[in-house]
Amino acid sequence: MRTFLALLLTLLAVPVVAQDMLPPAPYAYQQLDDPALETQAQNLMLTLRCLKCQSQSIADSDAPMAGDMRHQVRTRIAAGENPEAIRAWMVERYGAYVSYKPEVSASTWPLFVIPLVLIALVLFVLSQRLRRRA
Amino acid sequence: MKRLRLVLWGVVAVVACLFGLFAFQLSRPKDDVVVSAMIGKPMPQFDLKPSVADRPGLSTRDLMDGKPKLVNVFASWCVPCAAEAEQLAALEQNGAVIVGIAIRDRPQDVAAFLQAYGNPFTRIGADDISEVQLSIGSSGVPETFVVDGKGIIRYQHIGDIRAENIPQLLQELRKAES
């Protein structure tokens, strides 16, 4: 009986949420009127990292901060700013981590070079063997 | 035949290295802290309206009056922000000027929060859509920035301030003085 009561009480428990009470920013969930601009914004939002939920893009995330970032992206696009300029603005503040777009840089170049080297190596070995067989 | 065996050992070595790398990376604690890239750069232009009735709002100009300040990014709905209140009070007692940026917060909630945990702030700006937070590269609450008298961001503390962080913050403030 006591267990049952305890279980019943858990139904009344109110979860303590660290969540704000303010409505989302105007353009967090509101699309831009111009479909072309909205597409630009959408493409950019898909390649910006949500800083609260770091494996999601800001287009995927329902975190309030992601909503505020979408608002930034949409209002800046609507004001005529170039998507890459907005990406640069974010990177200037949060570092390259905020962008999902693959970029060749001082720390990432091996990722691009190693596959090419491996393919070259495979082609070389293959050509050697084929020649020997012929 | 001998060459083949050598090549095979090579493959084994490469795979062993790979597993070694996996083991190393998996044994390291997860580090998901995003450090602001704005340290050393001037505070961006902003002008925030007051968050509560008894404190003025916060603008970039207020951070350029020649005196270094702590800029505390907080919210009443954030639990660690309540936990660091004691430390902010201690910093204030040690002469630190602390201004606040309230993220996505209703005035009545901020007022109740300050009532409950104390008010170490000389100014509190209301950042309702995290605009200023985004522009200074802050990725959560609470965070505390040291800004020098010219409005240059000098230091960032991520997460709640613990008692052991106080000397560091006071030292950063002194460093910002020069």
TrEMBL record, chain A:
<dbReference type="InterPro" id="IPR005616">
    <property type="entry name" value="CcmH/CycL/Ccl2/NrfF_N"/>
</dbReference>
<feature type="signal peptide">
    <location>
        <begin position="1"/>
        <end position="18"/>
    </location>
</feature>
<dbReference type="InterPro" id="IPR038297">
    <property type="entry name" value="CcmH/CycL/NrfF/Ccl2_sf"/>
</dbReference>
<dbReference type="GO" id="GO:0005886">
    <property type="term" value="C:plasma membrane"/>
</dbReference>
<keyword id="KW-0812">Transmembrane</keyword>
<feature type="domain" description="CcmH/CycL/Ccl2/NrfF N-terminal">
    <location>
        <begin position="25"/>
        <end position="133"/>
    </location>
</feature>
<feature type="transmembrane region" description="Helical">
    <location>
        <begin position="109"/>
        <end position="126"/>
    </location>
</feature>
<keyword id="KW-0349">Heme</keyword>
<dbReference type="GO" id="GO:0046872">
    <property type="term" value="F:metal ion binding"/>
</dbReference>
<keyword id="KW-0472">Membrane</keyword>
<keyword id="KW-1133">Transmembrane helix</keyword>
<comment type="similarity">
    <text>Belongs to the CcmH/CycL/Ccl2/NrfF family.</text>
</comment>
<dbReference type="GO" id="GO:0017004">
    <property type="term" value="P:cytochrome complex assembly"/>
</dbReference>
<keyword id="KW-0201">Cytochrome c-type biogenesis</keyword>
<dbReference type="InterPro" id="IPR051263">
    <property type="entry name" value="C-type_cytochrome_biogenesis"/>
</dbReference>
<dbReference type="Pfam" id="PF03918">
    <property type="entry name" value="CcmH"/>
</dbReference>
<protein>
    <recommendedName>
        <fullName>Cytochrome c-type biogenesis protein</fullName>
    </recommendedName>
</protein>
<comment type="function">
    <text>Possible subunit of a heme lyase.</text>
</comment>
<keyword id="KW-0479">Metal-binding</keyword>
<keyword id="KW-0408">Iron</keyword>
<keyword id="KW-0732">Signal</keyword>
TrEMBL record, chain B:
<dbReference type="GO" id="GO:0015036">
    <property type="term" value="F:disulfide oxidoreductase activity"/>
</dbReference>
<protein>
    <submittedName>
        <fullName>Redoxin family protein</fullName>
    </submittedName>
</protein>
<dbReference type="InterPro" id="IPR017937">
    <property type="entry name" value="Thioredoxin_CS"/>
</dbReference>
<keyword id="KW-0676">Redox-active center</keyword>
<keyword id="KW-1015">Disulfide bond</keyword>
<dbReference type="GO" id="GO:0030313">
    <property type="term" value="C:cell envelope"/>
</dbReference>
<dbReference type="InterPro" id="IPR050553">
    <property type="entry name" value="Thioredoxin_ResA/DsbE_sf"/>
</dbReference>
<keyword id="KW-0201">Cytochrome c-type biogenesis</keyword>
<dbReference type="GO" id="GO:0017004">
    <property type="term" value="P:cytochrome complex assembly"/>
</dbReference>
<dbReference type="InterPro" id="IPR013766">
    <property type="entry name" value="Thioredoxin_domain"/>
</dbReference>
<dbReference type="Pfam" id="PF08534">
    <property type="entry name" value="Redoxin"/>
</dbReference>
<dbReference type="InterPro" id="IPR036249">
    <property type="entry name" value="Thioredoxin-like_sf"/>
</dbReference>
<feature type="domain" description="Thioredoxin">
    <location>
        <begin position="37"/>
        <end position="175"/>
    </location>
</feature>
<dbReference type="InterPro" id="IPR013740">
    <property type="entry name" value="Redoxin"/>
</dbReference>
